[in-house]
Amino acid sequence: MGYEKDHAAENFIVKLIAEELQSDPFGRKMCTRFPPEPNGYLHIGSAYAIHTNYSVSQRFNGTFHLRFDDTNPLKEDIEYVNAIIDDIRWLGYDPGEYIYYGSDYSNEIFEAAVTLIKQGKAYVCELSPEEMTAYRGTLTEPGQNSPYRNRSAEENLELFMSMKKGVYPASSKVLRAKIDMASPNINLRDPVLYRIIHAEHYRTGSDWCIYPMYDFAHPIQDMIEGITYSLCSIEFKDHRPLYDWVLRELKIEEPPRQREFGRLSLTGVVTSKRFLRQLVAGEYVDGWDDPRLPTIRGLRRRGFTPESIRSFIEEIGSIRTQSTVHISLLDHCLRQDLKEKTVSVMAVLQPLKVVITNYPEHETEMLTIENNSENEALGKREVPFSGTIYIERDDFMEQPPKGFHRLSPGAEVRLKGAYFIRCEDVIKDPVTGEVTELRCTYDPETKSGSGFTGRKVKGTIHWVTAAHAIQADVHLYESLLLNHDIPDDDSGDWADVINPGSLVAIPGALLEPYVQDVRPEQRFQFFRHGYFSVDGKLATNEKLVFNRIVPLKDSWGKSLK
């Protein structure tokens, strides 16, 4: 095929494949695959694996397959299948027509097992699961042969056929490969190839009651589809000898090759599907699409863009081992993607009423404000202004410390896109002493864009007009876990490690009327607060709900978390 080794800076997987392809080991096009089990939703680690397989296929002008590893009817569901397809397309790794299901190869996998039985390479074993574990040995001690290991091929074939017919109860018998119980690689100590499961399958119904193990089905499925490279995460490295053994014993010419890359984890988030399932089942989170989870569904609902996720993965590059990346890199990629895409609007999360006493009563004027200071192409908008507005409560202090450049008694600030105002009086609740209203005056000569060159002010604050404000609920997020801890047992009890401040729901936030007709997942920058997205699950025609995707880098974004 003549692939050139001209990419010295390429990632190690591409380098490795380019070197191997010099000997033309395949008489077919490059073909990779991503094989998710449809028993849950994709997460950010899945996206890394998808990207690795997809990008390699593109690099060598090949094809990329999505194949569902659906050989366990006890856990799988069409709901997950549809979600996985949708998420992969949303990410930008569309497999097009190349969508396959492992269950469609049931006959071929069964015939492969029969071939191994006839060759004396597989046998039916009746050890219980506990006995099989005991016979398996340890990392330092060899295993023991099963007492059923030396059955004849004829007897094994008869038993296997009876397994297929549903004669035996679940877990009473398995089909095992006959390899080497003394192998230093435990995966080669007569691994299970088939087990009995009496359950309806979401695609094949009750056609089968025996199902292959992934390590057996995987290489056969790859062979059937013409896969050239099975790119797996690093935990499958010790499984590679079994992958090769299956293909070798079946005498497959030009067999696909398994190669491994590092597994991606993020600080402060759970990327184990088992743990994610515990969080969902225990109702510690609001489903698989909870914005605090690193599932693709959760990231989408929170407001992340596919471009930012792809950029994040490309920034990481190819990793060889288990690697943990700080989540701030994902946030950075999101900011870089959105900074020139989004309209910056004013949103007051903790409103404080301001009455401008010298502004003409009952008058409203329209002020022109730019939509994005970094992208003129996004244009400008008209924002209503009148004598009663709301500002952020944190933008006022009665006794401000040194360096506080916002509003305080006698101090002057600029209202974003509007005028200078000066605080003249502070109204308080007579019982609690809480500040309930500010009385201010404005200087009509200081209108933004008017060419005013007089006195300067150091602070600019945002605002919304009382008569035109749109009310919304706003959700702010922190890490789901306290100190990034995960329970060290399998109890599923997360109560002590969940961060109680991971979700802060703020009702009654006020936004300028520009957001009145938003659509689900539409994104904005809220001036000084960060980037936000409409929550497609919770927002309705009657109530807007915004999720903060990520705060701004500056200290204000951090202080308002």
TrEMBL record:
EC number: 6.1.1.18
Pfam families (alphabetical): tRNA-synt_1c, tRNA-synt_1c_C, tRNA-synt_1c_C2
Domain Glutamyl/glutaminyl-tRNA synthetase class Ib anti-codon binding: 345-443
Top-tier EC class: ligase
Biological process terms in GO annotation: glutaminyl-tRNA aminoacylation
Domain tRNA synthetases class I (E and Q) anti-codon binding: 460-535
InterPro entries: Gln-tRNA-synth, Gln/Glu-tRNA_Ligase, Glu/Gln-tRNA-synth_Ib_cat-dom, Glu/Gln-tRNA-synth_Ib_codon-bd, tRNA-synt_1c_C2
GO cellular component: cytosol
Sequence ranges assigned to domain Glutamyl/glutaminyl-tRNA synthetase class Ib catalytic in this UniProt record: 30-339
GO molecular function annotation: ATP binding; glutamine-tRNA ligase activity
This protein's UniProt keywords: Aminoacyl-tRNA synthetase, ATP-binding, Ligase, Nucleotide-binding, Protein biosynthesis
The keyword Ligase appears for this protein: yes
PANTHER family: GLUTAMATE--TRNA LIGASE, GLUTAMINE-TRNA LIGASE
Cross-referenced NCBIfam families: glnS, PRK14703.1
Sequence similarity: Belongs to the class-I aminoacyl-tRNA synthetase family.
Protein name per UniProt: Glutamine--tRNA ligase
Species whose genome carries this gene: Paenibacillus solanacearum
Gene: glnS_1
